[in-house]
């Protein structure tokens, strides 16, 4: 008889060190419950605008079903270069400085792998998107955490960054507008970060997937700051701004040396992003501004509704200036983030995500997404109030 296989012994050690996403757990718990309102998902509640879907359908009808260049369609890269030049005044060469990827998720993974040697430290600013720490660990790097604070509106300060840098630091990973807090950083805030980054000669990975979703003031693109273009790996995509999560389409922009290193990984692991999604992205850039701005205006109205509603209930809520999340404190209720989220779901059928899922810095907070219809937000607020009053 042949020897029995023990599959677990073949799993790489790092897999046992990376916990599963805390967000998933809440969806699993909620599935099966009826009449649930979800403020849990970080996904637009809109369907992709029709003209974008139509461009994709047309391309399929024309038989455009092939691989593309590993870098992505030239036309898409040219549109992206024009878009950044006109919107942010930063120039990228479409032939050597732009890589089209399958989501910011892939761009992030490839960016980290392209710059990380075993043991290199990458600084993560928390509360943060759940994929950052695992991506660094999968690449053999060491995540070093900075916990931002409500008192600073969850901004990263130059002092905090300086204190976290060691001789092993390779890069700092920033994300403004931020998931999960909705915090943004203005030009002056980012200039202070740029000074520290240059002084210590490290890179910046800037995840700007929410750049179009800012309220009360525009977005500052990190690579548009003086001297920062070649020090930044800029990540952005179509999921959030154009309600295109299922298309899995994004891009990275950086200096040619970094992009060709990223390309090497992308080429052998992904080959190219799907052509239909790339065609949709071209259409979004060419003709999608109007629809996108309409969605952003609607998020803004919902933002006001949920921020004032939560504050009235007594869940103190920092005013988010970007993305589509609010991050109220539940500390005054005496419950932990997890107790609050779990009981709110079981007793009132409202799904939220405990803040500590996004790192220690999120302890005592809750992430609520307002990429949900106005009616659902209103009903969720009624239920949350009933829950808090019943404590
Ligand atoms: C900050 C941040 N980065 C990246 C992603 C992943 O985006 P994509 O759909 O482009 O992979 C998300 C999704 O929620 C996010 O919030």
Gist?
The protein is α/β, with parallel strands linked by helices and 391 residues long. It folds into 2 domains: 7-48 and 290-389, Aspartate Aminotransferase, domain 1 (Alpha-Beta Complex); 64-288, Aspartate Aminotransferase, domain 2 (3-Layer(aba) Sandwich), CATH 3.40.640.10. The chain is built from 13 helices and 12 strands.
Task: Describe the model.
Pfam families: Aminotran_1_2 (PF00155). Its cofactor is pyridoxal 5'-phosphate. Belongs to the class-I pyridoxal-phosphate-dependent aminotransferase family. This protein is an alpha/beta fold. It is built from 13 helices and twelve strands. It folds into two domains: 7-48 and 290-389, Aspartate Aminotransferase, domain 1 (Alpha-Beta Complex); 64-288, Aspartate Aminotransferase, domain 2, CATH 3.40.640. It has helices at 13-17, 22-30, 50-61, 74-88, 103-115, 132-138, 158-164, 187-199, 256-269, 275-287, 289-313, 337-348, 374-389; strands spanning 37-38, 98-101, 121-126, 142-147, 169-174, 203-207, 232-237, 250-253, 325-326, 350-351, 353-354, 366-369. The strands form three sheets. It has a seven-stranded mixed β-sheet with strand order 2-8-7-6-5-3-4, with helices on both faces. A three-stranded antiparallel β-sheet has the order 9-12-11. The model has no long low-confidence stretch (mean pLDDT 96). It binds pyridoxal-5'-phosphate (PLP). Pyridoxal-5'-phosphate is lined by residues 42, 103-105, 129, 175, 179, 207, 209, 237, 239, 245, 250.
């Amino acid at each position: 008889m042949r020897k029995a296989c023990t599959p677990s012994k073949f799993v790489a050690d790092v897999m046992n060190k990376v916990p599963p996403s805390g967000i998933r757990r809440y969806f699993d718990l909620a599935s099966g419950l009826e009449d649930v309102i979800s403020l849990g998902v970080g996904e637009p509640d809109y369907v992709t605008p029709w003209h974008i879907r139509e461009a994709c359908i047309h391309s399929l009808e024309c038989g455009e079903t092939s691989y593309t260049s590993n870098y992505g369609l030239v036309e898409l890269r040219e549109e992206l270069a024009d878009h950044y030049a006109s919107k942010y005044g930063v120039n990228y060469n479409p032939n050597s400085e732009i890589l089209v990827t399958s989501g910011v998720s892939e761009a992030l993974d490839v960016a980290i792998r392209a710059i990380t040697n075993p043991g290199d430290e990458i600084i993560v600013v928390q509360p943060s998107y759940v994929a950052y720490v695992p991506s660094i660990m999968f690449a053999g790097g060491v995540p070093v955490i900075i916990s931002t604070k409500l008192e600073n509106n969850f901004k990263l300060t130059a002092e905090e960054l300086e204190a976290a840098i060691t001789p092993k630091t390779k890069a700092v990973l920033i994300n403004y507008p931020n998931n999960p807090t909705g915090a943004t950083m203005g030009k002056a805030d980012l200039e202070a970060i740029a000074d520290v980054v240059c002084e210590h000669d490290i890179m910046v990975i800037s995840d700007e997937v929410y750049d179009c979703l800012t309220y009360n003031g525009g977005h500052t693109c990190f690579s548009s700051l003086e001297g920062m273009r070649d020090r930044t790996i800029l990540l952005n995509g179509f999921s959030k701004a154009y309600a295109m999560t299922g298309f899995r389409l994004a891009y990275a922009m950086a200096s040619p040396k970094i992009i060709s290193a990223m390309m090497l990984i992308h080429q052998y692991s992904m080959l190219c992003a799907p052509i239909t999604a790339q065609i949709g992205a071209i259409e979004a850039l060419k003709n999608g501004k109007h629809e996108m701005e309409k969605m952003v205006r609607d998020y803004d109205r919902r933002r006001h509704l949920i921020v004032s509603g939560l504050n009235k209930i007594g869940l103190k809520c920092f005013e988010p200036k970007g993305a589509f999340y609010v991050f109220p404190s539940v500390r005054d209720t005496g419950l932990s983030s997890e107790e609050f989220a779990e009981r709110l779901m079981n007793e009132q059928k409202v799904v939220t995500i405990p803040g500590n899922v996004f790192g220690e810095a999120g302890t005592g907070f809750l992430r609520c997404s307002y990429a949900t219809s106005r009616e659902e937000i209103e009903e969720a607020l009624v239920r949350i109030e009933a829950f808090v009053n019943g404590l």
